[in-house]
Specification:
The complex is a heterodimer of chains A (115) and B (115). Chain A contains no helices and 12 strands. By secondary structure, chain A is an all-beta fold. In chain B, strands 2, 4, 5, 8, 9 and 10 form a 6-stranded mixed beta sheet that branches. A 4-stranded antiparallel beta sheet of chain B has the order 1-3-7-6, with no helix packed on it. The chains are: A mainly beta (115), B mainly beta (115).
Chain lengths: 115, 115
């Protein structure tokens, strides 16, 4: 079975500080992709970062980095130098390559950046 | 158009009526996904299309839900005999390919309210 777990329903961070949003996953497929999306209050889903299961290095995209620990099946998102505009819902997703190609989403973490 | 478009943006319907939701994917994107997002919750997979292959309908919650896609273009999600529990935002996403880093690009969603 495929599963994504985000255990933090809500997080707060001070502006300019770093914050880590947790994500663990479960799949028997050895090949998979991990994704993070941001959903502001306006509702659109914005792609942030991708990590492939065979990638040797952790992915980085600007202020976003993905702390990929394959043995622990975790793919935490780190946002550095938080900005007020980072306040949003954040969803972790996984797509197993060999078993159906669905995207499986977590329940999300609501991040609030405090000025 | 640059992105995924969906119409209508909002739909209010009476219980028992049928509704059609439309999605225009990004040109050239072979994969198309439909999701349902209830208020304050994560994304629930409904169906996905990949080129001319048979769609993966495993997420459709009941036989009142159906979807079609013509080739690699427009898709329509139909909900028959709507119920109040169908009230949600329906999101469509498309992706260029389904291997490797193939992030989804989401449309703005259709907010469906069943009264």
């Amino acid at each position: 079975a495929q599963k994504i777990t985000q255990t933090q329903p809500g997080m707060f961070v001070q502006e300019k500080e770093a914050v880590t949003l947790d994500c663990t996953y479960d799949t028997s497929d050895p090949s998979y992709g991990l994704f993070w999306y941001k959903q502001p209050s306006s509702g659109e889903m914005i792609f942030l970062i991708y990590q492939g299961s065979y990638d040797q290095q952790n992915a980085t995209e600007g202020r976003y980095s993905l702390n990929f620990q394959k043995a622990r099946k975790s793919a935490n998102l780190v946002i550095s130098a938080s900005q007020l505009g980072d306040s949003a819902m954040y969803f972790c997703a996984m797509r197993p390559v060999n078993t159906g190609n669905q995207f499986y989403f977590g329940t999300g973490t609501s991040l609030t950046v405090i000025p | 158009g640059a992105g995924v478009s969906q119409s209508p943006s909002n739909k209010v319907t009476e219980k028992g009526k049928d509704v059609e939701l439309r999605c225009d994917p990004i040109s050239g994107h072979t994969a198309l996904y439909w999701y349902r997002q209830r208020l304050g919750q994560g994304l629930e997979f409904l169906i996905y299309f990949q080129g001319n292959s048979a769609p993966d309908k495993s997420g459709l919650p009941s036989d009142r839900f159906s979807a079609e896609r013509t080739g690699e273009s427009v898709s329509t999600l139909t909900i028959q005999r709507t119920q109040q529990e169908d009230s949600a935002v329906y999101l469509c996403a498309s992706s260029l390919k389904i291997t490797g880093r193939s992030e989804q690009y989401f449309g703005p969603g259709t907010r469906l309210t069943v009264t």
